[in-house]
## 1
Amino acid sequence: MTRRDIPDATVARLPVYLRALHPLVTAGVEVVSSEELATIAGVRSAGLRKDLSYLGSYGVRGVGYDVERLASEITRQLGLQHPWSVAIIGMGNLGHALAAYSGFATRGFRVQWLVDRDPAVVGTEIAGMRVVDFEQFAATVTEQVIAVISTPPVAAQEVADAVVELGVRSILNFAPGVLSVPSHTQVRKVDLATELQILAFHEQRGKDDARIATDGIEASG
Amino acid sequence: MTRRDIPDATVARLPVYLRALHPLVTAGVEVVSSEELATIAGVRSAGLRKDLSYLGSYGVRGVGYDVERLASEITRQLGLQHPWSVAIIGMGNLGHALAAYSGFATRGFRVQWLVDRDPAVVGTEIAGMRVVDFEQFAATVTEQVIAVISTPPVAAQEVADAVVELGVRSILNFAPGVLSVPSHTQVRKVDLATELQILAFHEQRGKDDARIATDGIEASG
DNA sequence: AAGACTTTGTGAAGGCATGCACAAAATCGC
DNA sequence: GCGATTTTGTGCATGCCTTCACAAAGTCTT
């Protein structure tokens, strides 16, 4: 059982497990069963066990998983031992909210740059950080950085090209529309209106179906 | 070919196609081939054709798809002929940004309620709308409504219970963590930190893989 | 009117993910 | 110590989604 090739579906769930583990770690719980953790995470226990098996064998039969060890193993696998630097580009409403979002810091990320091209915004302070223009950003980037694009749609491609040019290989894109990037660059997209439209479809169909989970995150009550 | 049971994966892409069609409609383009539209939407043409085939036969062989007809058909299928009412609950940074987000209005949604429980926030105006408390919201809801939960994590479950009680059957949840809802209620989740963590995993693995698409939205350039 | 050309719609195949069911492995009680 | 009990790890079956490849169906040219 090599630790290479973890299925994409599993990778997408590891953050969920990590999050589910966090309160247990804090509460000092030492051991958790796949059944319990699956309930917290909103998945099936068999799937959880299979997912964890890709990381190696970190459970004890008849007992369960060592909470702390499992959390640290997932953290390691996700590459979150050291925080990642994040640049938020586009300081509109959304960029503003993202800059102030505390969830990044608590989950392994450090927002290091707030970038905008509007001279009226550059130099102002948002959530305790000074907004810089793209040139200043480009001049100060040294390490690996994840770019978050929260510009208006028309500017998104241009920004993507520019950050790729800087060596960025991971982009989280909030602007609707498709980004063209080189093959070595990964893009994840969050489109709020799309999410609502999917909900609308099912709500309209209504009655028959329902309970469709995005990532298998939801549990019934 | 009944028009029931459209696969989930297809439903999730219909909004993308609709968005890709929009500029074509605006530009007055009359016909588009699956190849062209697939490029715009960032998918493969074969998959696009299969997806569209679930809606019925709206293309003409040797020609392509009538842009306007296709757009209106997808709009109809998604249930977007009439705008849906949306309530944003939790007027923190994110709720604030969502309230001001223009993308909802242009894509079939009308934000009708901004809800918060902080008395200091209730009554204030955000993006031209007055913030109400939950009681006022509950008292004025009549029609179908989609609830967007942008509260802190600890309040999310409580809010979910409350809106379900009001008859809401569709929830878009920005709060990390699992929501327990009755089986007739659908929840979609957007977790920003999770998205970054997935990026971090691939960036760390680096080199070998990359170009992993969230929804198959990205195109290479 | 017929043949060349284009593009859709779809059957079939392959790959991936999920869920089941159970053997393997550990603890606990006596 | 040994059998009962618990819980993991995983082989297998099932179902879903994607991709391929091509026949069907239309347009265009001559």
## 2
Amino acid sequence: MATGRTHRPATRSRGIPEATVARLPLYLRALTALSERSVPTVSSEELATAAGVNSAKLRKDFSYLGSYGTRGVGYDVEYLVYQISRELGLTQDWPVAIVGIGNLGAALANYGGFASRGFRVAALIDADPAMAGTPVAGIAVQHTDDLDRIISDNGVSIGVITTPPGAAQQVCDRLVAAGVTSILNFAPTVLSVPEGVDVRKVDLSIELQILAFHEQRKAGEDASADGEDPEAPPMRATPASRKGPDGDMPAVMPA
Amino acid sequence: MATGRTHRPATRSRGIPEATVARLPLYLRALTALSERSVPTVSSEELATAAGVNSAKLRKDFSYLGSYGTRGVGYDVEYLVYQISRELGLTQDWPVAIVGIGNLGAALANYGGFASRGFRVAALIDADPAMAGTPVAGIAVQHTDDLDRIISDNGVSIGVITTPPGAAQQVCDRLVAAGVTSILNFAPTVLSVPEGVDVRKVDLSIELQILAFHEQRKAGEDASADGEDPEAPPMRATPASRKGPDGDMPAVMPA
DNA sequence: GTATGTGAACGCTTTCACAGCT
DNA sequence: AGCTGTGAAAGCGTTCACATAC
């Protein structure tokens, strides 16, 4: 059974912490906006505000890249844009394949911000033979049967999975076998991949559930003893002694 | 100026760490799958594998909820499903409004996993008058002018923003003014919100850039001195002394 | 015997606060 | 005087390893 390693354990590239890497795109976006407004330099305070972080964090982050600022002045916008782009590997372009051209896959294919910075939709792949040849966002959809060849021919190393959950692992395996080493997974599935393959996931349902947790907390802040009907709770198999916190299972359960 | 607090600083609910909250949906999904297969109990090891984490982490996570397992046996699946659902606030249903019905908004409206667990698409809102009345996923799109009323009438406390980046902050402000206290933002924009409002963001572009970073690292692992043409780097305004690591700007720049 | 629940150790991330340049 | 760059401290999150309960 494949155990599947997701995200980075602690391999740490050339010393840039993962948390910092995750913020570089944020800084880059803010810097690009400044660049378009022809702003020549920016302070850590200003840039941090624009990126939605605090300035100490930003300075610490930049310190991992090198000393790219000027004391008493700030950072040169163009110069930083280049340095961060290079660090993120955006000075080359990355052909990307999207597998699963349903509503979401099509939406991503049409997404403008995709091509904007280094990424290029090189192929759209779907298992439905009826879709083969249909153009989506100006690109003809190709059939899964040719996945291997499509990946190889286009030198794709980043794959995006937007299939139904049931197909995700299989598609993932085929992508990896074809040479893909980075996967962005939109399917609500835990993917197993061999060592050396990176997986990041985007999961609408999980995000909503996290929001609901906090939302519930807010609502329950004043009204402690609720008067709402508590959904019929299932009984426990082993009715042993529990010691959960207040919100435990009701002592009486519905017949 | 609104400073805008994103995510949770460190308020920590009733003691459940944020990292744990973020994993509860994962456990819930794995447990639901087991439940559908009528599996009565599961060990921390098995469940951890299914959820893609290690068992120590899972047990630690569950310990924050209470002692819901049985030593020497494992966890009762149904019981845990109920406890986690309750903890996440999924025993009540959450009406959600989606603002910005373009490709992505429509895709989300059609997304099945949405309604599945406690969430219900209560309203679709768009600024384009031509879209008003058009049904998307069986729900008529309403115009932004009525946003306030729509939110109030439906008791929406969770909003999803899928507008173009330029409109996101304005839509966010209006949602918050109308009573929304949780926002899921798909627009590539840093949102400013007042204290007490939670924002989570989903950003395709950021995820791809993080993957590109690691991808670049993999590629450069053996080939140190690259032969690729390095995109013309911009010159620095202040040509002062830098001490960045190896990947510095080329000493000679293109004429 | 077996698997949970948890203090303690460890490592990563953030924040502080100030030395070091410009 | 002003702002960056960075050690040191504090805060979180993960992992270990074993006492505890079944």
